[in-house]
């Protein structure tokens, strides 16, 4: 009886707290509507501000005292911000489809589930839709912790004038999925994206060494294919399994437990400083002795931390290359602007792809 009374008191307390949460969320939503009215009266058509959202989430995590961890608390507040932003103007986001891909999961992680997501068939299509103004932003994969850079994304930047507006890091868990008609003891074919097949190579060697591995355009496409086949399985994630009604025969089969993919948010606007930013540039160097040293030395001298340096073949000539460089800091920071000015004076070409908030989580 005493336990029943204690439970009743606790449930009453939860009900009271829920009422307060409801009132505060509604108050926040009304405030967001007022922000939209102020922006409209000032002629400001930009509703979504990546730097502002990053600042809010960092503030929340700094104030968080548990028991929910920072990642979960940030997820909750991102959904609140997404719903409030939708009252002003829903954000329309293109992603590398079809539905159920990790890229869609990254888009929803960054923009929240109130965003309108649009699946497209190729990375360059995402770039074109953003450039044309058909969507506000695009999400494309750029780097995997196991398999390295996504070269198609890097190459598309060579011909694009879009800006990088943000980044998302997503922990990737692969599952072996089967359909309702699959004979699980007679799997002779495994579908997935080539990157996912590579990320699960050792597991497949140990468990299905004789199964044919067929690379398709996406993990979601793999999930769709096996629904009509009795001897096939797919490697894909939770979203694809739920969307296409598949069963997880084996979970988390990636070879490395820390397997993660980094995605870029692309848009048409430059992003103001958030206080904790990264910058990405493309540099074409002249073919001369010491060119790489001369390119990198100003970063070291000005205390700018490089986080990634990649090379890709140039479109301008045989055996010539461009460098994709990521580093910490915003282009408006004095030390970064000094580096960009110096580097720009010694290279054949330099283009800033964007300064943007570092991934919050």
TrEMBL record:
Annotated Prephenate dehydratase domain residues: 92-268
Superkingdom field: Bacteria
Residue intervals of the Chorismate mutase domain: 1-92
The entry's keywords: Amino-acid biosynthesis, Aromatic amino acid biosynthesis, Cytoplasm, Isomerase, Lyase, Multifunctional enzyme, Phenylalanine biosynthesis
Alphabetical GO biological process terms: chorismate metabolic process; L-phenylalanine biosynthetic process
GO cellular component: cytoplasm
Positions bearing the site annotation: Essential for prephenate dehydratase activity: 261
UniProt pathway annotation: Amino-acid biosynthesis; L-phenylalanine biosynthesis; phenylpyruvate from prephenate: step 1/1; Metabolic intermediate biosynthesis; prephenate biosynthesis; prephenate from chorismate: step 1/1
Residue intervals of the ACT domain: 280-357
Documented EC number(s): 4.2.1.51, 5.4.99.5
Record's keyword annotation contains Lipid metabolism: no
Subcellular location: Cytoplasm
One Pfam family this sequence matches: PDT
DNA damage among keywords: no
GO MF, one annotated term: prephenate dehydratase activity
NCBIfam families on file: CM_P2, PRK11898.1
Record-given protein name: Bifunctional chorismate mutase/prephenate dehydratase
Source organism per UniProt: Porticoccus litoralis
């Amino acid at each position: 009886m005493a336990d029943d009374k204690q439970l009743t008191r606790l449930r009453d307390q939860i009900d009271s707290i829920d009422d307060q949460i409801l009132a505060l969320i509604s108050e926040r939503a009304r405030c967001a509507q007022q922000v939209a009215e102020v922006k409209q009266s000032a002629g400001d058509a930009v509703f979504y501000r990546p730097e502002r959202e990053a600042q809010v989430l960092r503030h929340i995590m700094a104030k968080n005292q548990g028991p929910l961890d920072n990642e979960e608390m940030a997820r909750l507040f991102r959904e609140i911000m997404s719903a409030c932003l939708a009252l002003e103007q829903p954000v329309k986001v293109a992603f590398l489809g079809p539905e159920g891909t990790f890229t869609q999961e990254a888009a929803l992680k960054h923009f929240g589930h109130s965003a309108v997501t649009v699946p497209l068939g190729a990375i360059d299509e995402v770039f074109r839709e953003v450039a044309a103004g058909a969507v506000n932003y695009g999400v494309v994969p750029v780097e995997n912790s196991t398999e390295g850079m996504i070269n198609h994304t890097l190459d598309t930047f060579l011909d694009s004038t879009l800006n990088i507006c943000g980044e998302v890091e997503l922990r990737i868990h692969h599952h072996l999925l089967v359909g309702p008609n699959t004979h699980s003891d007679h799997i002779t074919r495994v579908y997935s994206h080539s990157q996912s097949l590579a990320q699960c190579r050792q597991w497949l060697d140990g468990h299905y060494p004789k199964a044919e591995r067929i690379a398709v355009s996406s993990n979601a496409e793999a999930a769709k294919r096996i629904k009509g086949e009795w001897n096939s399985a797919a490697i894909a994630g939770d979203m694809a399994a739920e969307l296409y009604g598949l069963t997880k025969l084996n979970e988390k089969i990636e070879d490395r437990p820390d397997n993660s993919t980094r995605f870029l948010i692309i848009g048409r606007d430059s992003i103001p400083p958030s206080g904790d930013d990264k910058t990405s540039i493309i540099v074409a160097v002249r073919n001369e002795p010491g060119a790489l040293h001369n390119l990198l030395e100003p970063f070291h001298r000005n205390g700018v931390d490089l986080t990634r340096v990649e090379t890709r073949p140039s479109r301008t000539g045989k055996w010539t290359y461009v460098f994709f460089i990521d580093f910490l800091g915003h282009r408006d920071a004095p030390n970064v602007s000094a580096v960009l000015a110096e580097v720009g004076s010694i290279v054949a070409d330099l283009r800033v792809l964007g300064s943007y908030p570092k991934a919050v989580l």
